[in-house]
Task: structure prediction
Amino acid sequence: MHKEIHEQPRAVADTLEGRLAGDRVLEQAFGPQAMNIFNQTQQVQIIASGTSYHAGLVAKHWFEYVGVPCEVEVGSEYRYRRHAPRGGTLLVTISQSGETADTLAALVEAQRQGIVGSLGGCNTPESSLVRESDLSFMTHSGPEIGVASTKTFTAAMTGLMMLALVLSRRHGFDAGFEAHVVKQLRSLPSALEKVLEIEDEIAQMAKAFGNKANALFLARGAHYPIALEGALKLKELSYIHAEGYPAAEMKHGPISLIDDEMPVVALMPRDDLYEKMLSNVNEVKARGGTVIAVATEGNEDIKKLVDEVIYVPEVSSLINPVLMAVPMQLLAYHIALWRGCDIDQPRNLAKSVTVE
Result:
């Protein structure tokens, strides 16, 4: 897993390679039928499980930012409920293996209902998901051996952002918008490298929290799914109970858990929701909680308000969630390492869930 975390800059760069032309995303990167299907797309339905589901939740913010309605659902729920007919739906399935049983069954169910097309986002060529989908987008991450997904997560989000940019052209966004985001995507590998450079600091923080029984991850907007992913990684690797919550929802229940034994990880980049996150962090501190803030480089004021700070480089708010995922992975990895857990093969887990 450690090796795969450090392969993320290359995995993202390889996923971008050949898919960008100047300041545009190439539609044909999604397949020969892409233009026809995208022209008919009025909304997106994402189906995935586990970490791939969290990638879909981030992408929902991107699709709706560019004017495309988007729903996200886990495959095991989608396949067992009745669906209202919705025209113009592009089904997007995400699976690193392409063999996730619930996701494949949901794809079959959606095709039976009638959709304009299906797109499989996958890291495994010739997988069932790729074969059964009209379009595909391969993440060029290379083999991922560790059970807990890392590089396939960031590469999948990169692919979903490119899909959002392609669809944005059909919803009133001009070439200037796409050029701006493409420039940010091109800078993403180097930004990921900078985050990896602070691993030693994160490892030191992990020692202080390795003996805790619970943890809470808080965020807002497109970063909330990254909080969910941070909590999942901690559970998977270290067997510590953890929850990811929208920060404002803390007041609807979880705030009762806050004490000096409940560490809180707060994702708080300098964006439109920063002041709101600051208010939530102050509520935690007022109740004796310990806060690790993941903040934007240069924000020195935050040091006075929290216990520990992990800094990430300043990038566009649209792609910042991809960057924020890496400290979550490193924190979970080093806590599990300190606790002596089997990191690559956590108990009771398999790399690909191929049965229901």
Summary: Residues 160 and 191 are 19 Å apart (CA to CA). The longest strand covers residues 89-95. Residues 175-196 form the longest helix (22 residues). The two ends are 26 Å apart (CA to CA).
